[in-house]
């Protein structure tokens, strides 16, 4: 007979597991609006006094806890998961007359589970050791150097690993993924719309950044923020000495653009913009791909139209171009085109596939645990090696299938290495028009077409 631990919250958990796959682009995944109420009532009546760190350390350790708020609603909490926490000071019913009895999503607190311990009784008191995420407004109170509230996105979190607390299981309100936003990595995973995200880590004890604060871009010196209402698009200058992002709206305002009725004049400039020193990763990657021997002499006419189309577009991100934009696919295409046409290097075998699709990641996630397990005891104490590994970037709902066996055709074919999963950066790009003319923006720094 499994033991059940009944929580005291009236809980209404967000829908989790927004899946991103080639058939469901992340742009189509719409999460619950943050302006809606969470369904959580901030009137925790039974706040037990947290144990001291010494008392906590002496308690029995649990790898995971199945926590129930009703017979139907159960959540499994594990080490390294990000969770929603009901603020213990938010007794909002007493704040104002007619105040809503429920908290908004942004009123909840967020943390990462570092440890789970309890008193080992039949119906145990369970405590969580957590490290906090700071919301932008809360983060401003630490007065970190060079931080402006406007540098942080609406749903951005600053991770504060040194600010830790021991909280009771009653205060948890479900699992919430805080996506790791790797701004500099053009091959990083996309992030579902309206998700919480983090890119910076701050040590609140030593008052130093462990992962730097968001980088400022453009002429306006603003950061790139996800889920902006204005959906601003940014353009990148990939030339030596530049390597900067600029808002399309700022370039337009500064009259940094050209128009022409022939798009090929712009395409000529886009396709040659590549900095070998900066994008060494791509240079090395392409050099390692299999290719036929010989010298390439067929010029542009002999190259894949798909790859040429990628090479001949500006590098953009933001707005409809998503979190990482088209940079990965465009730069790969440009490098292959450049080497073939100017240096006579044979394009790699299946280079079209290489530009459009991504290779198999090394870390296939074989853990298929969901947070709705219905079997087992309320508290599991068995040590499971798989649960102990570092799992900083949980991305459930993004598990990918392995390439099917049928796609494997032979040991020398590229298809043995490349499952047909489109690169995040391989999105389609439509050229910008200004009336009946094509429009291209210019870099404020080098003044070239970007
Ligand atoms: Zn700007
Ligand atoms: Zn430039």
UniProtKB/TrEMBL annotation:
Biased composition (Polar residues): 405-415
Domain BAH: 75-213
Comp. bias intervals (Acidic residues): 362-374
Annotated spans, Disordered: 1-46, 358-423
PROSITE patterns the UniProt entry points to: BAH
Ranges annotated as biased composition (Basic and acidic residues): 7-17, 35-46
A GO molecular-function annotation: chromatin binding
Protein name: BAH domain-containing protein
